[in-house]
Design brief:
alpha/beta, 21 helices, 638 residues, single chain
Length: 638
């Protein structure tokens, strides 16, 4: 019996001993784990201290336990002070404090983490935007400590602001662009309907900007545009909307005005512009404008109606020049209608009698070799003069004839490539499609038929579409492009970058080339913002495996910058002016030597420079020739 009792006691002792040993082992394991954690924290601390992002640990109340060097520096705390008694919530602007206490910290505690954009006040009291992540650390089922990492996103916000500004403003005058103006006008119409307020739309057209460009150069023309923008800012109230409508046109919204007030404002602008001058090469250059006025809401209940009314009034004012005309239902709009019908007839004749003329403008690589030509459409006038597309294409778009024009150009381009192939020549072209091309049910079958008939190399033809056209009809644009991709055809997005949505939609469109809009290029050597944006576009294109083309290249300095940024191709008057396609074909090299032309007696210096600058361009860049002198270049390049 005693033996049994002793045996039982011994068994209990062994169990107790085993339990004690197991507990001791667990305790040792926990101690080792804690030591490992502390050692890891000690090893990580120098890294956290050296981080450029703000890192901190804090209690759920916001009381800061630890703040790294970047955070201390942002708050202006000397390193010798260590982590002071601060509350994270109290270091933020009011809106961010509410976000942290009402959303971020509770979410991190409940779900384990939270991320979003907040802000902190730096040592000068300025608000610093942050991209912040907060995670909770549980201990015995409770959250006693939270950790956070926050990144300063001021540069990101600045870039977004710059992109938005570029998307809504004219790069030369810094006035609102056409798209933004129409949004402002639409808002004014809404307010007019809601509150009964009145206003006026003013259309201004420069009388004779082309002679200034032709005789004194485009830089002189730019000075005239800047002068008019300056006068508009000076003469109109700060609250009124001013826009560079495009080309040589401006627009303005005069708020809270009746017809007499609007007429008075227009006449004041006429006088101010007439009396202003720009100095070019020591010579004073004066100009005048014509102004059309439409009243809000009397002359239109929609943006389109108001713009048509203002345009009709401007048409009447242009007949007299240096004149302002207020729209009235009594205006002889039949004159305008007759004019529209005349141009419709001329377009029809151009299609039926082959009176359209094709010009080509070279697109060169960074070695100076001509990569391909962009085809540009002109119309042959009754007296043999060349009519620029800006004169007749608006009528073609309004009348629906633009579809026939698109088909004419595409068919002719394919035929030119095929004909030159038969002569042993390799002609590579780029063709602009209108903004309404995707709505033409006949265009896609025509392209498919012509490509099959001629068997041309699809690499020899690139189709250009404008960014705004692609985005406004994204579904049809994507389908159209993918159908032609199957034939091997490639696409270029023209005017890339002018829309704030460019980057978002780019991944949805199967394009191969991005033509950086000329508004970013024209003033590139003198505009740091444009330089920053162009570099960003080139990096974006490179990351997406797309080629870049810079248009409106006007001088050697711009070429050098674009080469340094990694732009693939350049186009513009410095690179080569538009010339008749027949002149280009007459000097096209045989196949196997590229599309570059043979040199001839008509080759000359860039029209924006003298022969000396051309020689400098040849020595400064690895190019053979960076512009060819045309035999009668047209007024417009688009």
């Amino acid at each position: 019996m005693l033996i049994v009792i002793l045996a039982g006691a011994l068994g209990v002792s062994i169990v107790v001993l085993v339990s004690l040993l197991a507990w001791q082992r667990v305790k040792i394991h926990r101690l080792q784990r804690e030591q490992t954690r502390r050692r890891g924290a000690e090893l990580a601390e120098p890294i956290v201290e050296a981080m450029t992002d703000v890192a901190a640990t804090f209690k759920p109340s916001g009381e800061i336990i630890y703040l790294n060097k970047a955070g201390r520096r942002m708050l202006g705390i000397p390193d010798s002070h260590g982590t002071p008694q601060l509350n994270l919530v109290e270091c933020c602007p009011p809106w961010a404090s509410r976000l942290l206490t009402e959303e971020a910290i509770p979410a991190a505690i409940a779900e384990g983490s939270w991320s979003g954009e907040t802000a902190i006040l730096d040592n000068s009291g300025k608000e610093v935007p942050l991209s912040q992540v907060i995670v909770s650390q549980h201990s015995r089922g409770n959250v006693e400590v939270l950790s956070t990492i926050a990144r300063d996103i001021r540069e990101k916000r600045l870039l977004e602001s710059e992109l938005l500004h570029v998307a809504t403003h004219d790069s030369l005058t810094n006035l609102l662009n056409r798209r933004r103006f129409e949004e402002e006008l639409d808002q004014q119409i809404v307010e007019s309907k809601r509150y009964g307020s009145k206003g006026a739309v003013l259309f201004l057209d420069i009388d004779g900007l082309k002679p200034v460009n032709d005789s004194l150069g485009h830089l002189a023309g730019d000075q005239v545009l800047l002068m008019i923008a300056s006068v508009l800012r000076r003469e109109l109230r700060e609250s009124e909307v001013i826009s560079r409508w495009g080309g040589d046109e401006f627009a303005a919204i005069v708020l809270h005005s009746d017809e007499d007030t609007a007429q008075s404002v227009a006449e004041r602008l006429l006088k101010a512009i007439r009396e202003e001058a720009v100095i070019v090469n020591g010579e004073a250059v004066h100009t005048t404008v014509s102004i059309g006025v439409a009243m809000i809401p009397d002359d239109g209940s929609t943006v389109e109606e108001l713009l048509v009314s203002a345009d009709l009034a401007l048409y009447q004012a242009k007949a007299r020049r240096n004149f302002a005309c207020v729209y009235s239902s009594n205006l002889d709009s039949q004159t305008k209608m007759n004019d529209q019908r005349v141009w419709e007839q001329r377009i029809r004749e151009g299609l039926e009698k082959d009176r359209f003329v094709l010009y080509g403008q070279p697109i060169r690589d960074m070695k100076g070799e001509i990569y391909r030509y962009e085809l540009l459409l002109r119309l042959l006038g009754d007296d043999g003069d060349i009519v620029a597309p800006g004169i007749f294409l608006p009528t073609a778009e309004r009348s629906g004839l633009i579809h026939a024009v698109d088909r004419w150009v595409v068919k002719r381009a394919i035929s030119l490539i095929a004909d030159q192939r038969e002569l042993g020549r390799d002609l590579r072209l780029s063709v602009n499609l209108s903004g309404k091309a995707f709505a033409d049910p006949e265009l896609l079958p025509l392209l498919q038929t012509e490509m099959e008939r001629t068997k041309i190399n699809p690499d020899n033809l690139v189709l250009e579409i404008t960014e705004s056209a692609a985005i406004s009809d994204l579904h049809n644009a994507s389908q159209f492009m993918r159908s032609l991709n199957e034939l091997g055809l490639k696409f270029a997005i023209d005017d890339f970058g002018v829309g704030f949505s460019s980057f978002f939609y780019l991944k949805r469109l199967p394009v191969d080339y991005l033509k950086i809009d000329g508004s970013f290029i024209r003033n590139l050597p003198r505009d740091a913002t444009d330089q920053h944006l162009v570099r960003s576009m080139v990096e974006l294109a490179r990351g997406l495996n797309k080629k870049t083309i810079a248009e409106f290249v006007g001088d050697l300095e711009t070429v050098k910058l674009l080469r340094d940024y990694g732009v693939d191709y350049v186009q513009g008057y410095f690179v080569g002016e538009p010339r008749s396609i027949w002149d280009i074909l007459a000097r096209l090299k045989p196949s196997g030597t590229g599309v570059a032309e043979t040199t001839g007696a008509t080759d000359g210096a860039a029209t924006v420079s003298n022969g000396t600058e051309r020689e400098e361009s040849l020595s400064a860049l690895p190019v053979r020739t960076f512009a060819l002198k045309p035999d009668g270049a047209p007024a417009s390049t688009s």
